[in-house]
């Protein structure tokens, strides 16, 4: 099947060794499942291969925007990796989980003064700074608090890795980072080096998402190392860290490619090593920020089929008890997903279905025209590979409550509770 954590027994879909239909009965639907073993082994894989091929101190940072709740940070802590966070909400969640903040890196293109203060007060390890305003603000606030704050600068290497425009971020024309091509990156390094209450520790780039080849990473690292060669010449500055971002691809449907993470990191390492030798540079500590590739295939969402509407000559709409409120990715990017009729795994997949959510929005679809075993009301649909950018992008549109998350490890346990009607009105006065 699509990933090794999927199997079929007695016509029922099993996930991470658990019978999905039994889980639906126990927890009700919609239901989000996570395979703990896969999350841990993905983190451990990144950690071991990065420390094998890069200098000591190199490590993966889990890009927690992919899926952020307390237990995820506990697992990161347990597996000994760092994390990248994008808001004080994510930071607060990490703090609440006891995550060691010296391994936290704070991203985002518009950090507010109050965000910066909150992070510094809580002992954040590193800011990843996008532009001047933020750099000056951090210096000012650090000075008020009599500290020297460590940071990395986010640069745009000018690379388009040919994924969807909305998830491609390394181009010059981007709201993120400072461009190398325009000379602004060199300028901001000069400023950062001149400020007294910040310590420049490295450079960061993130070129995009769903990347299956290593060439965009190699191209980005060439540009970054070339830039480091320049900062050495201009300012005698060689950074401790080079952060190459995230973006490793994940297989959502059979037709997608795969990427061997171990081989990819190994090949990127030998490329970076050769480039460093060419410039006679000591290799910086390398950071990666995998999000999707750690958690996506470890997730599955289960729904119950409700109304089915067949329009002759058009579509067969199969409505489910969830939709864009728990998975907005098809509505946003027309993302591909594999859909299975989880209780009819032995039946032929000869029914063309468009999976529709319950919102008052025609775009509230999970997938159009997919081939599944013919469902009837009450059947269970599984949408695969929903661990990344589903729950973290979920909303309460139409006052729809968000599903619970159940972690499947040695036992099954609720790690995020189902939202109730009371939760939905908790903030209303
Ligand atoms: C989104 C993002 C990531 C993670 O990307 P994935 O495709 O989930 O691996 C890493 N770093 C930055 C800066 C990001 O914005």
Molecular structure report:
- It is a single chain.
- The model has no long low-confidence stretch (mean pLDDT 96).
- The protein is α/β, with parallel strands linked by helices.
- The longest helix has 21 residues, at 215-235.
- 31% of the residues lie in helices and 24% in strands.
- The strands form 3 sheets. Strands 4, 14, 15, 16, 17, 18, 19, 20 and 21 form a 9-stranded mixed sheet that branches. The chain has an 8-stranded parallel beta barrel with strand order 5-6-7-8-9-11-12-13, surrounded by 5 helices.
- Helix 2 (36-53) runs parallel beside helix 9 and helix 5 (113-121) crosses helix 6 (132-144).
- It has 2 domains: 6-35 and 298-424, Lyase, Ornithine Decarboxylase, Chain A, domain 1; 54-292, TIM Barrel (Alpha-Beta Barrel), CATH 3.20.20.10.
- Pyridoxal-5'-phosphate (PLP) binds at residues 63, 65-66, 84, 107, 206, 209, 245-248, 289-293, 388.
């Amino acid at each position: 099947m699509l990933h090794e954590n999927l199997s079929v027994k007695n016509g029922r879909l099993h996930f991470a060794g658990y019978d999905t239909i039994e889980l639906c009965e126990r927890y009700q639907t919609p239901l989000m499942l996570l395979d703990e073993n896969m999350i841990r082994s993905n983190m451990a894989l990144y950690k071991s291969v990065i420390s094998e091929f890069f200098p000591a101190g190199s490590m993966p940072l889990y890009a927690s925007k992919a899926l952020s709740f307390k237990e995820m940070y506990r697992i990161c802590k347990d597996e000994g990796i760092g994390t990248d966070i994008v808001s004080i909400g994510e930071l607060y969640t990490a703090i609440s989980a006891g995550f060691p903040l010296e391994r936290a890196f704070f991203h985002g293109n518009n950090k507010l003064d109050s965000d910066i203060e909150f992070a510094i007060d809580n002992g954040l390890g590193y800011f990843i700074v996008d532009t001047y305003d933020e750099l000056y603000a951090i210096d000012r606030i650090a000075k008020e608090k009599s500290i020297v704050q460590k940071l990395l600068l986010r640069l745009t290497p000018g690379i388009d890795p040919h994924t969807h425009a909305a998830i491609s971020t390394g181009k010059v024309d981007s709201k993120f980072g400072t461009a190398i091509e325009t000379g602004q990156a060199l300028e901001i390094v000069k400023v950062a080096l001149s400020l007294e209450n910040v310590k420049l520790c490295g450079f960061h780039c993130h070129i995009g998402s769903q990347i299956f080849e290593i060439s965009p990473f190699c191209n980005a690292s060439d540009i970054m190392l070339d830039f480091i060669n320049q900062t050495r010449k201009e300012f005698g500055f060689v950074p401790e860290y080079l952060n190459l971002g995230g973006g490793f691809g994940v297989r959502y449907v059979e037709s997608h490619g795969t990427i061997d993470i171990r081989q990819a990191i190994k090949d990127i390492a030998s490329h970076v090593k050769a480039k460093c030798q060419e410039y006679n540079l000591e290799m910086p500590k390398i950071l990666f920020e995998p999000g999707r590739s750690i958690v996506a295939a470890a997730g599955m969402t289960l729904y119950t089929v409700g109304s089915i509407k067949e329009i002759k000559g058009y579509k067969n709409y199969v409505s489910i008890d969830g939709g864009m409120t728990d998975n907005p990715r098809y509505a946003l990017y027309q993302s591909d997903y594999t859909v299975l009729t989880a209780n009819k795994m032995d039946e032929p997949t000869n029914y063309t279905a468009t999976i529709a959510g319950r919102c008052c929005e025609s775009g509230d679809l999970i997938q159009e025209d997919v081939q599944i075993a013919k469902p009837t009301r009450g059947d269970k649909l599984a949408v695969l590979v929903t661990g990344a950018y589903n729950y973290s992008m979920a909303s309460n549109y139409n006052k729809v409550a968000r599903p619970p998350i159940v972690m499947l490890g040695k036992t099954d346990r609720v790690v995020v509770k189902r939202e109730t009607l009371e939760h939905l009105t908790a903030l209303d006065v």
